[in-house]
Amino acid sequence: MTLLDVKNVSKNFGGLQALLDVSIHITQSQLIGLIGPNGAGKTTLVNVLDGVYKPNRGQVWLKGKRIDGLPPYQVARAGLGRTFQVTRAFRRMTVLENMLIPAFAMHPTSGKQTHSEKAMSILEFLTIEHLANDYGRSLSGGQQKLLELGRLLMLDPEVIILDEPFAGVHPKLQETIYAYIEKVRSEDKVIILISHDMESIFTLSERLIVLNFGQIIADGDSNEVKRDPLVIAAYLGKDDEAEEEVDARGQ
Fold it and tell me: What is the distance of C-alpha 30 from the center of its chain?
């Protein structure tokens, strides 16, 4: 069964064409890097996938169930979860209470003790168990990133979208996020990673999808896509070596 099937999705905002005939087929667990310049349509695509936006055309299927047009909470229950570029903890709730919210949203009849034990185990893995009784408003930006990852693990989705998880994060915390990603990968889940940190994208991704002006211009093995001269020239910075490679292939 196809895990995630995006079929000819288009989205416009008035006269602005944000996405045009975007198709993505994911049939197995893998880590996919989604890259492109600012304004390429990455965030719009994610917002379509998780139900924030309804596409003007096209369909999104998750494990054989059509999810485009569903509200975000139903998409989450179907098995797709995401993080955001700008994290927002519930400021007047403790870290542990923040962790329990998605658990009760998914399993409202389950006992608090079971959820609390799972939450503490995840917080320990993320190295922030000592903050369990601290309020959300007291967390640093990096700690809020880790909390958001923890809340995502409480949902236990099969498809995970990480939107700029390394932005503004201290190198030490970045190591923890790397460990989080490796843990999720070991559980045979799909991860779609959006990041301007090219080193992280290239290190972690098995597959790269490149967006430009709302269209996919490259989709394939990470090692092949990152050496594509057009991708190098347009999205990763055009240096002398890249120009020489483009010229050599063009002759």
Answer: 12
Cα Rg for the chain, rounded, in angstroms? 19
Domain ranges of the chain: 4-250
Digit-coded pLDDT (tens) for 60-80: 999 999 999 899 999 999 999
Residue 20: in which H helix or E strand, if any?
Answer: strand 16-26
219 DSSP β-pair partners: 209
Partners of residue 194 on adjacent β-strands:
34, 163
Task: Look at the alpha carbons of 209, 186, 166, 174 in this order and tell me if their dihedral is positive or negative.
Answer: negative
Q: How far apart are CA 164 and CA 38, in angstroms?
A: 13
Write down the number of H helices and E strands in the chain.
10, 10
In DSSP terms, 223 is beta-bridged to: none
Closest of 153, 161, 155, 167 to residue 83, by C-alpha: 161
* Cα atoms in the 13 Å half-sphere on the side-chain side of 81: 20
Q: Both tokens of residue 126?
A: 């993320």
Q: Are 68 and 60 in contact (CB under 8 A)?
A: yes
Question: Residue 158: which residues within 8 A CB-CB, separation 6 or more?
Answer: 3, 63, 79, 80, 189, 190
CB atoms within 10 A of CB 228: 20
Single-letter residue type at 156: D
Q: With respect to CATH, is domain 4-250 assigned 3.40.50.2300?
A: no
pTM of the model: 0.86
